[in-house]
Design goal:
The chain is mainly beta and 187 residues long. Helix content is 14%, strand content 39%. It has a 9-stranded antiparallel sheet with strand order 1-2-3-4-7-6-5-8-9. Keywords: Signal.
Length: 187
């Protein structure tokens, strides 16, 4: 999925709900989660969106894309976006390091802020594993999981789909035209 489509994906991934609020009994604490598995829409990406009730100020989406860096190295990139401006990153802030628990193990990520190509006043965070050790842990966890991998920060927690990841990772080898444009000049 192209990064300029992230906002559209976030909006379209939310389920259509009945007006009678009967859906609240189906979800813990009123949270609704939608998940797009690897190969479901795009062979090289997956995403998860969560929203509490119909309050889109609580909505966030995490997507993962298999792409290639400027040097041609195959990498896994994560993007975090929210329709709530309080959760948007600061485009003037330098890239930094954040810790995200992946199946309870603290993993270091490099994070930077990207301005959306379509919506100039919309920004999202893009992340990739900081070290080879961190990257190998994430890749092995996704390869070995039969269904989902848990990601957790102070702001959010979600289970990310692992189903189809191994097939997607293997299929993208050598496809250097899949370079992630969100990292231009960053990595």
């Amino acid at each position: 999925m192209h990064n300029k489509m992230l906002l559209v994906a976030a909006l379209c991934s939310m389920p259509v709900l009945a007006d009678d609020e009967s859906w609240k009994s189906l979800t813990p604490n009123g949270w609704i989660t939608t998940m797009t598995h690897w190969y479901q829409d795009d062979p090289l990406s997956a995403h998860v969106s969560k929203v509490q009730g119909l309050d889109f100020n609580t909505q966030y989406t995490v997507s993962a894309n298999i792409a290639h860096s400027e040097t041609g190295e195959q990498k896994l990139y994560f993007n975090f976006l929210s329709l709530n401006s309080d959760y948007m990153c600061d485009p003037h802030q330098e890239a930094d390091t954040v810790i995200i628990k992946v199946n309870e193990n603290p993993i270091r990520f490099q994070r930077w802020c990207i301005q959306d190509a379509t919506y100039n006043d919309f920004y999202f965070s893009s992340l990739t594993a900081l070290s080879s050790e961190d990257e190998n842990y994430i890749l092995e966890t996704l390869h070995q999981s039969p269904d989902n991998v848990n990601f957790q920060t102070a702001q959010f927690e979600l289970n990310f789909p692992a189903t189809g990841f191994t097939q997607a990772w293997k299929a993208s080898f050598g496809m250097t035209n899949l370079w992630n444009p969100s990292v231009q000049g960053v990595l």
